[in-house]
């Protein structure tokens, strides 16, 4: 473990521990997703639909939220810091009139945490008003920004999204669709873009399809979302996922299916299936919960261990734990309970209270695990600090053995496509062998799902190389150019 973990330094913001907010959660070193986008075209209640759609995507970003609507004459927008329910109320939501909208929830990683970076970003340029929202990260945004600044561009934010807006504004094309194509052909990375004008809604997905992006319908209205679960909450119907390199345009003539570039190697982020997406979402017509259950079943086949019960670390590991239990016949139990009401905890950051922090968020059920051999299923190990704390929670509750099974391969490399990851020196799997990790987390045994097992479990059948997934965080095979520096780059949106 690093000095920051053993000494307790670096885990607090100011005088309090702000759970789930800021660079990373020091007590719970889970990866952080980047952002979520939601779009509506052709519905009189576009703002209300966006509000509920953002609620469904809240897990993808809790730092800021924003909605921009368009009617025939004007844009109407509101953005704020905090959760969706904290940003929007009866004083501002009714002012967002119009039949089209784009909306955004943000978790900043590369960009700074401030209102100026909250999205959608709204601009005025020679062809009129423009609003942009994105989920992802552009790996060449810094280089483009430097070039634009040398040419006189002035940036108001630290967001990658503004880089694309400048490219659109500076395009030689007057037509907005051609200008967007021109801009997107200059950027590299992972992105799902929603671009709004007074009479058009444009949706575009990066050439590798790294980020999830789905299209749905509600009556005659079109919907777009980072995850299909957002359609369910507004009563919409999932139609399909956008294709890599695809650009869809909605205007008074209806839907136009177009492209801004040819698709490249299909490489959907594998971590969406493992951890980030909600279990009730479908990505490329594959249900996330079902995929996670298959991961658990495959884990059981690859690394069976005789035990008395199986438990998952809530919530993202529950599906895999159920699959492991079904495959082995070992009972699944709620051995760990998540406290959903911790929020911000205004306490002095003493070492003793830091050690208590994990118990504020997670509890072991003593009457379930006491005297039992426990298989603990988790989706990943990042720094190892969380796994150690949870294993010790189970031991303190009386578990006689704790066997850890991870439903993904070892996380050894930083992500450059929009996931908040530490640098390699802080990734425990990049620094230690599996046996050394087992000792570090105090487990009786430890096994990671093989990469082959992961790809087979997700179950895409189209025969694309590597199953059609980006697995760079596991195997260091990135699908685009990346500037592989010491520090990882998270979400730039």
Structure description:
The structure is a single chain. By secondary structure, this protein is an alpha+beta fold. The protein folds into 2 domains: 3-13 and 272-475, Rossmann fold, CATH 3.40.50; 35-264, Glutamine Phosphoribosylpyrophosphate, subunit 1, domain 1 (4-Layer Sandwich), CATH 3.60.20. It is 28% helix and 25% strand. It contains 17 helices and 25 strands. A 7-stranded antiparallel β-sheet has the order 4-3-5-2-11-10-12. A 6-stranded antiparallel β-sheet has the order 6-7-8-9-13-14, covered by helices on one side. Strands 18-22-23-24 form a 4-stranded parallel β-sheet, sandwiched between helices. Helix 9 crosses helix 10. It is globular and about 70 Å long. The two termini are 31 Å apart. Residues 1-27 and 344-349 have low confidence and may be disordered.
Helix content: 25-40%
Whole-number mean pLDDT:
88
Task: Note the main sheet.
Answer: 7 strands, antiparallel
- Number of continuous helical runs: 17
Taking strands numbered 1, 2, ... along the chain, how are they ordered across the largest sheet? Answer: 4-3-5-2-11-10-12
Indicate the structural class. Answer: alpha+beta
The CATH superfamily of the largest domain is known as Aminohydrolase, N-terminal nucleophile (Ntn) domain
Q: Quote the beta fraction.
A: 15-25%
What name does the CATH topology of the largest domain carry?
A: Glutamine Phosphoribosylpyrophosphate, subunit 1, domain 1
Number of strands: 25
Tell me the CATH architecture of the largest domain.
4-Layer Sandwich
The separation of the N and C termini measures 31 Å
Q: What is the number of independent domains?
A: 2
* Overall CATH class of the largest domain: Alpha Beta
What is the rounded Rg? 23 Å
Cofactor: Mg(2+); [4Fe-4S] cluster
Domain Glutamine amidotransferase type-2: 35-253
Binding site for Mg(2+): 316, 378-379
GO biological process, one term: 'de novo' IMP biosynthetic process
């Amino acid at each position: 473990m690093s000095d920051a973990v053993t000494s307790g330094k670096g885990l607090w913001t100011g005088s309090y521990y702000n759970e789930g907010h800021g660079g990373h959660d020091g007590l719970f070193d889970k990866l952080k997703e980047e952002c979520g986008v939601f779009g509506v075209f052709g519905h009189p209640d576009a703002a209300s639909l966006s509000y509920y759609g953002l609620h469904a995507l809240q897990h993808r970003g809790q730092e800021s939220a924003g909605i921009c609507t368009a009617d025939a004459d004007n844009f109407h927008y509101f953005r704020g810091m905090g959760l969706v329910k904290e940003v929007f109320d009866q004083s501002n939501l009714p002012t967002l009139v119009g039949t089209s909208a784009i909306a955004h929830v943000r978790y900043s990683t590369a960009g700074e945490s401030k209102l100026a970076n909250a999205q959608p970003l709204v601009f005025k340029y020679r062809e009129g008003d423009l609003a942009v929202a994105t989920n992802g990260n552009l790996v060449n945004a810094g280089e483009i920004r430097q070039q634009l600044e040398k040419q006189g561009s002035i940036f108001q934010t630290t967001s990658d999204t503004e880089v694309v807006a400048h490219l659109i504004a500076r395009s030689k094309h007057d037509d907005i669709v051609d200008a967007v194509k021109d801009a997107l052909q200059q950027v590299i990375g992972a992105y799902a873009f929603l671009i709004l004008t007074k009479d058009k809604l444009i949706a575009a997905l990066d050439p590798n399809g790294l980020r999830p992006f789905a299209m749905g319908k509600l009556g005659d209205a079109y919907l777009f979302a980072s995850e299909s679960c957002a359609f369910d909450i507004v009563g919409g119907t999932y139609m399909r996922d956008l294709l890599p390199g695809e650009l869809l345009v909605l205007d008074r003539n209806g839907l136009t299916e177009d492209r801004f570039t040819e698709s490249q190697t299909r490489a959907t982020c594998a971590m969406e299936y493992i951890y980030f997406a909600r279990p009730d979402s479908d990505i490329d017509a594959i249900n996330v919960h079902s995929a996670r259950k298959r991961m658990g079943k495959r884990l059981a086949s690859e690394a069976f261990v005789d035990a008395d019960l199986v438990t998952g670390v809530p919530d993202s590991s529950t599906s895999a734990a159920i699959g492991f239990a079904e495959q082995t016949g070992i009972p699944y139990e709620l051995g760990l309970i998540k406290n959903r009401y911790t929020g911000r905890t205004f306490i002095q950051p003493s070492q003793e209270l830091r050690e208590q922090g994990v118990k504020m968020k997670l509890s072991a059920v003593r009457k379930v695990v006491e005297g039992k051999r426990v298989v603990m299923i988790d989706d990943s190990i990042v720094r190892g600090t969380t796994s150690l704390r949870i294993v010790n929670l189970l031991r303190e509750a009386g578990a006689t053995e704790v066997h850890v099974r991870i439903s993904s391969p070892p996380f050894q490399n930083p992500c450059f496509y929009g996931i908040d990851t530490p640098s390699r020196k802080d990734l425990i799997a990049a620094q230690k062998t599996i046996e050394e990790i087992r000792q570090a987390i105090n487990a009786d045994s430890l096994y990671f799902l093989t990469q082959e097992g992961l790809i087979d479990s997700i179950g895409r059948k189209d025969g694309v190389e590597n199953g059609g997934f980006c697995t760079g965080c596991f195997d260091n095979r990135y699908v685009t150019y990346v500037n592989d520096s010491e520090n990882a780059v998270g979400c730039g949106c």
